[in-house]
Amino acid sequence: MSEPLAKEAPSAFALSGRKGVMKLLSGLSVEARHESRLVFAANPALFALLNLGRFVGPVRRIPRLGWLITDPVLARRVLSDSAHTSLLGEGGVGHLWAQLLGDWVNDAFDGPGHLELRERGKDLFTDASAKAHVARVFHEPAIRLADKLRQGASVDISEIARIWVGRMVADLLGLPIRDNRDDSEFRSIFACGERLAALAIGTIGSTVIKPEVVTEGRTILEQLTSGVPEAYENADTSTLLGRCREAGIPLREARGLASLLLVAGTETAASAMGRGVALLHDTGQQHALFAKPDLVPSSVREILRVTSPAPLIGRHVTSDIDVSGKTIRAGEQVLMLTYTANNAAGRFDIGRPHDPKIRQLWFGAGRHLCLGAPLARAEITYLLETLMAQQRPWRVVRRRASRRVIIPAYAELIITCGPEKPPLRGGGRRGETLVGTRVGNGHA
Ligand code: HEM
After folding, report:
1. pTM to 2 decimals?
2. Would you tell me how many other CB atoms lie within 10 Å of the CB of residue 197?
3. pLDDT-based confidence at 56, cuts 50/70/90?
4. 323 lines ligand 1 (CB under 6 A)
5. For residue 112, what pLDDT is reported?
6. Is ligand 1 within 6 A of the CB of residue 370?
7. Of 39, 114, 240, 251, which has the fewest CB atoms closer than 10 Å, so is most exposed?
8. Sign of torsion, CA 18 24 27 28?
9. Pairwise CA distance, residues 248 & 157, whole Å
10. Is there an atom of ligand 1 within 6 Å of 415 CB?
11. CA of 265 to the centre of ligand 1 (A)
12. Is 170 in the pocket of ligand 1 (CB under 6 A)?
């Protein structure tokens, strides 16, 4: 660690130690504390890095790690600069993918092949199609969830999110399902996505993965996408693979895309669903939402901003680039700390207007902007609307963070719906960022 940096941010270096974490958490509000615990439990090094990002300024080089960017506008600029950066070289997620899926990724996930794939795939998920898709896939389990809540039962929202997202993946990939009401089938599909994503643990510093990890990843992918060729041939155009075929996306790319959806769209979406329910509870803002249901879209946006389930995005620099007066050299890596950048805007507030500086940085930016963004938004919305249809506020009765995972999440989030009708006005304190500003009056 460089000397001047150590002077600027002494506390940041102690953050991964227990004492440092306790000190940091003690100054935060209840929701920020819960969120911070999730990040720490997922990966203490990630927790330290995201917090370090608060002290280093907008652009900073950290030895052995590369460049950190914490300013949302600069982050978007780098992500949109495909002339100087790539996600294929070391530091980018495409580098991981090429090792797992093969060299064809180098064409399909950047450069002209990627442009063509995105162009053909631009209508795979629109807000309208995602909404209809989610309603079709989530309808049946949502009825069961609503029944349980109505009967006063406690339910594990994290597990429900994993099962619902597993359903979505099964649908997208055209996987054969024996019994549509058997949640365990969908839970194990989700678990495959988790195993696949877990292969990326420990790649913050380097995206080179070991040969045995490559073999494991290929085995999981082979297993999960074995049904793709048949579904691609026969599926109708209401399904993703049917739409891929109609859009002229070749089978190999469609299979690759299916693999990508599995990794990119499982843990991220489920994490946001569980954490969103917790945030609305912990801030008391579920009451404001009950009073004004048209705040659902801004609540979803705020859940995505504050949780930023993909907390950082890496790029490989292909030719020298100037970022805010600093020259980043060809061959170096850049990490956009999107979690830090997004949270610097302030505390969770469902009334927060769209922020033109951040836009939707939680979904990335530029040519790799999340393809599944409409689907993710529709999934979170459907869960919130299912809970709100109860007309009774929910209470978190127990929670536990997932440990050693790539995406911070609740392993367990048990809620129950109270008997009372929601009050017309909601609480929630303002003026604090999640990993940012401290307040002195956080309650447990
Ligand atoms: C809350 C949920 C989600 C978040 C926060 C999220 C975030 C992101 C981010 C930050 C990127 C850009 C990565 C980069 O530039 O290196 C990305 C790309 C991508 N995401 Fe998502 N994602 C989510 C859900 C989904 C879902 C549900 C799907 C589809 C089922 C999906 C499919 C993709 C794909 C295919 C890409 C690659 C796009 C490309 O390279 O052109 N994501 N996502």
Report:
1. 0.91
2. 19
3. very high
4. no
5. 81
6. yes
7. 251
8. negative
9. 38
10. no
11. 6
12. no
Query: For strand 66-69 and strand 333-336, is the pairing parallel, antiparallel, or unpaired?
Result: parallel
193 touches ligand 1 (CB under 6 Å): no
Is residue 368 in contact with ligand 1, taking CB distance under 6 Å? yes
CA–centroid distance, 23 to ligand 1, in Å, is: 34
Identity of the amino acid at 185:
E
- What are the C-alpha distances in Å from 128 to residues 125, 133, 162, 302? 8, 9, 23, 21
Nearest CA to ligand 1 atom 17: 370
- Averaged over 293-306, what is the pLDDT? 98
The first and second tokens of residue 335, run together, are: 């990490």
Report how far residue 64's alpha carbon sits from residue 77's, in angstroms, rounded to the nearest whole number: 23
Whether the CB of 335 sits within 6 Å of ligand 1: no
Which atom of ligand 1 is the closest one to the Cα of 365? 15
- 433: buried, middle or exposed (CB in 10 Å: 19+, 13-18, 0-12)? buried
Q: Which two tokens stand for residue 242?
A: 């049917």
**Burial class for 128, CB neighbours closer than 10 Å (0-12, 13-18, 19+):** exposed
Strands 313-317 and 333-336: antiparallel
Output the 3-class SS for 370-384. CCCHHHHHHHHHHHH
Residue 2 Cα to ligand 1 middle (Å): 34
User: Domain 3-417: which CATH class?
Assistant: mainly alpha
What's the sign of the alpha-carbon dihedral 263, 264, 269, 274?
A: positive
Residues paired with residue 71 on neighbouring β-strands, in sequence order: none
| Nearest ligand 1 atom to alpha carbon 314 | 16
